[in-house]
Write a structure and sequence with these properties.
Strand content: 35-45%
Strand order of the largest sheet: 4-5-6-11-8-7
Number of strands: 23
Structural class: alpha+beta
Length: 356
């Protein structure tokens, strides 16, 4: 009913808590065509852009399709191609790509992605994708019955894209100055990280700018800068304890709380109201010689049941005590969400509530 989220109790490296500014992935996206499908492609009458895309591509290859031609292409599917461009990627390196259908193709299994430019947020082309599809799903149908395993409208192509352009990144261009960004804002952790880095280098090379960003006075030489960054990432420190927090997932009913959560004494009553509606249909059949019609009459039976609820005292200074007190209520996970919100509103639950 309640999941436990343990907080770090040991020292962690800077690499696990922060990252250098600018050193990040870049998202790429492109529109393309998958061919070679076994009759499971788009229905062009409902997805006219598929035939239009194929016509434009054929015209670039020197093939002219007469205007007004109604193309029935069951072996072609329009797709969107996505990829992540890692930092420091150079032309010629390969990327993994994901291919997803955007029309009504029933399966991309066995298809081949044609040459597709992958563009970044600035509109420039950074990679070219092409290759044979790898789809993990499978399906079969016959006589009006069908069976399907996993999803077949999307797949992947390992090493399916070639990098054509690198993303410019000038680390330390401002006189060797670097920025270290924490994954989560925390003034206490920033303070400890600055002290740990300066202690590692025996001089003041790190300066806190705010609760998330640390400025580093790095070398101007590229090789020395790499050694400096590697040394910074390996520095060990113990971050401050995260604030008490309870995370509620409204879609799955999951409840997760960290070890800082405490529960002041409170009285909680929990009950369940269930309403059952059962409808039976009776047929009124007149005699054969009578002038009447057959009538179907519904007979509804409504039953309301309510479980008895008693006030129960809940309290806990430690996470295990909080879990035992909440489990003693006998509430379902979704009922527990409402109880936690009420406890937070009453001031008994000493934690932040986050709903995802």
């Amino acid at each position: 009913m309640v999941g436990l989220l343990a907080l770090p109790v040991q020292a962690e490296s800077v690499r696990e808590l922060a990252s250098f500014s600018g050193v990040r992935d870049n998202q790429l996206v492109g529109y393309g065509l998958v061919v070679g499908l076994d009759g499971s492609g788009d229905q062009t009458t409902q997805a006219p852009f598929t035939s239009q895309s194929l016509t434009n591509m054929l015209s670039q290859l020197g093939v002219t399709v007469p205007s007004g031609t109604n193309l029935q292409l069951r072996n072609v599917a329009a797709v969107m191609v996505t990829a992540d461009l890692p930092p420091f990627s150079r032309p010629g390196q390969r990327l993994d790509i994901v291919v997803s259908s955007i029309a009504n193709a029933s399966s991309l299994r066995g298809g081949t992605l044609l040459m597709t430019p992958l563009r970044g947020a600035d509109g420039d082309t950074y990679a070219i994708a092409q290759g044979n599809m790898l789809v993990g799903g499978a399906g079969a149908q016959a006589g009006g019955s069908s069976v399907q395993i996993n999803h077949q409208a999307a797949g992947a192509i390992p090493n399916g894209a070639l990098v054509e352009k690198e993303v410019p990144l000038n680390l330390g261009s401002n006189g060797g100055m670097l920025e270290l960004q924490l994954d989560e804002s925390d003034f206490g952790t920033v303070q400890r990280m600055v002290a740990a880095i300066n202690n590692e280098f025996d001089e003041s090379v790190a300066y806190a700018r705010n609760g998330r960003v640390i400025a580093l006075d790095g070398p101007t030489d590229a090789n020395a800068r790499v050694n400096f960054m590697a040394r910074v990432e390996s520095v060990q420190l113990t971050p401050t304890q995260a604030p008490a927090r309870v995370v509620l997932n409204a879609r799955t009913g999951s409840v997760v709380m960290n070890s800082a959560v405490t529960l002041r004494q409170a009285a909680v009553a929990h009950g369940d109201l269930s309403i059952t509606i059962d409808t039976e249909y009776n047929v009124s059949q007149p005699n054969a010689l009578a002038e009447g019609e057959t009538v179907v009459t519904p007979d509804a039976d409504i039953n309301i049941q309510q479980q008895e609820a008693f006030l129960r005292i809940v309290e806990g200074a430690q996470l295990t005590e909080v879990v035992n007190a909440l489990n003693a209520l006998g509430a379902t996970p979704r009922d527990l969400m409402s109880i936690l919100q009420s406890l937070r509103a009453s001031g008994s639950l000493r934690a932040e509530l986050e709903i995802i």
